[in-house]
Structure formats: structure tokens, C-alpha cells
From TrEMBL:
UniProt organism field: Cyphomyrmex costatus
Superkingdom of the source species: Eukaryota
Topological type in the membrane: Peripheral membrane protein
Origin organism lineage: Eukaryota, Metazoa, Ecdysozoa, Arthropoda, Hexapoda
Biological process according to GO: protein targeting to membrane
Subcellular localization(s) per the UniProt record: Endoplasmic reticulum membrane
Protein name listed in UniProt: Ras modification protein ERF4
Amino acid sequence: MSAGRGQAGGGPPQNCQKVFIQRDYSEGTVVKFHTRFPTELESRLDRQLFEYTINQLNNYFAEAERASCSTYCESCLYCLTGYLISICTESHYEKCLRKVAKFVSEQNDRVYKPRGLLLTDPTTRGLRLIEISVLDRPAS
């Protein structure tokens, strides 16, 4: 379901340099990424733009994992219907993942692609990392 999410044309080319932003496990296993600015991007991207992107992604994932009365009721409804309700509706988590995909696509169009970079949706990497491809630098 998440294949190709956030990338037009199937994703970045395989033969370019990649910069990886790792998960931050300092607060447990919640989905959160490090905001440490990678040195490989210094000449290409402003630190504030990078931090905005990462912080916004972290906020979307925090929203997806936030427990509330409605998410509790949603979970109960899923269990009571044997998950058949998923045919008709989208879960809170799926809605948040759709927001992530839209945000990644918008950031690529506005910020990353004009600078020769491509941000990959973290859901396509199993939420393990964020991949930023430097499109005009060959892989080393």
C-alpha cells in the first residue's frame, strides 16, 4: 500500500548519493527522527528548512500514535467487526500516513527537488529512516 508513496515516478534513482536520517530512540520506540543536520547537505539545504521538515514529520507521527477516546473506540469497532470495517473506512493511523505522504510530496516540489535533492517517504523504508537522495552526485 505504501509503495511509491510520496514520490512521483517510482522514487529516486539507485545510482546517486544517499543521506540517511536515523530514528531517534531516546524516548522509546515511538516514531521520531533525529534533527541533527547532516554535513553532506550543508551546501545544498538551509538548516532551518531541514529542521522544519523533520520536526513536521515527527509531529505527524506523534499525532498518528496519540491515544484518544476516538482511537480507542475505533480500535474496538475494528475488533468487533473482525476488521471488516477496514474495507469501508480508513483508520486514524492511515489518515496520518496519508498526511505524511502529501507533506513529503509538497516538500519535494517546493524545497528539495529545486536543490537537486529528493526526500523519500519514511513509510517506504519501514519507518526505520528518512532517505534524502542527492540526485547529481554519484553513489560512492
